[in-house]
Amino acid sequence: MEIEAKIKITAAEAKALLVKVLELSVVSNNNVVETNSYYDLRGSILSKKGKTFRVRRTVYFSSDWKTEIAVSATVTIKGLIKKKHKFKARPENNYFFLSDKAYDGITGFIEEVGFRHLITYTKRRHIIRTKSLEICFDKLPKLGWFIEIEGDSASIESCLKHLGLDKRKTIKQGYHSLLKKGLS
């Protein structure tokens, strides 16, 4: 089950929040660029069931963003969002491929077998992991900056409090939905 809190922030807030996040017990700290492509079956069968099918290409960079380290692809099937949860919560299954050519092969195959492409977007992401959380600073063209905190509900609430963020400002829509609606 993926549980996350996502909040829209400004560039200035991102810088200030990053300092606060680094005060936590950091296990790892990564820079990545992710390209996310969403698909559905003809007739929007998955969407009608509240499910999402995504293929992600991730390029890993050095801490100074100058050196490309590795490339991977992940196929994700997300289930129905749990409506009575205080944060965005939904089952998620991920299938990981470590190859710089996997993304193109997977997306080509998916389209060949009849899935239709819905949307593709790219985001720049700074990922910080602690023992119980994954905290991401995301920058997306047209949408701007977001902080996304994944983990269990108690850890997310504690982190939001530490960062001085209001949990009532969390956004339950995914970036693909926000881009389709044109929200910023």
Structure, explained:
It is built from five helices and nine strands, in the order βαβαββββαβββαα. It has 184 residues and is an alpha+beta fold. Strands 5-1-9-8-7-2-3-4-6 form a nine-stranded antiparallel beta sheet. β7 (116-129) and β8 form a beta hairpin. It is globular. The model has no long low-confidence stretch (mean pLDDT 94).
Shape: globular
Classified in CATH, the superfamily is Hypothetical Protein Pfu-838710-001
Strand order of the largest sheet: 5-1-9-8-7-2-3-4-6
Per the CATH scheme, the topology name is Hypothetical Protein Pfu-838710-001
Beta-strand proportion: 35-45%
Radius of gyration: 17 Å
Runs in which pLDDT lies below 50 for 5 or more consecutive residues are none
**Oligomer classification:** single chain
Q: What is the overall number of helices?
A: 5
CATH architecture: Beta Barrel
The average pLDDT is: 94
Name of the level-1 CATH class: Mainly Beta
**What is the number of strand segments?**
9
Fraction of residues in H or I helices: 10-25%
Helix/strand-derived category reads: alpha+beta
Can you lay out the helices and strands and say which pair or pack?
Layout: E1 2-9, H1 11-21, E2 28-40, H2 45-48, E3 52-61, E4 68-78, E5 88-90, E6 92-97, H3 102-112, E7 116-129, E8 133-140, E9 144-151, H4 153-163, H5 175-181
Antiparallel strand pairs: 1-5, 1-9, 2-3, 2-7, 3-4, 4-6, 7-8, 8-9
What's a quick, concise take on this entry?
The protein has 184 residues and is an alpha+beta fold.
Jot down its keywords.
5 helices, 24% helix, single chain, 184 residues, alpha+beta, globular, Hypothetical Protein Pfu-838710-001, 9 strands, nine-stranded antiparallel β-sheet
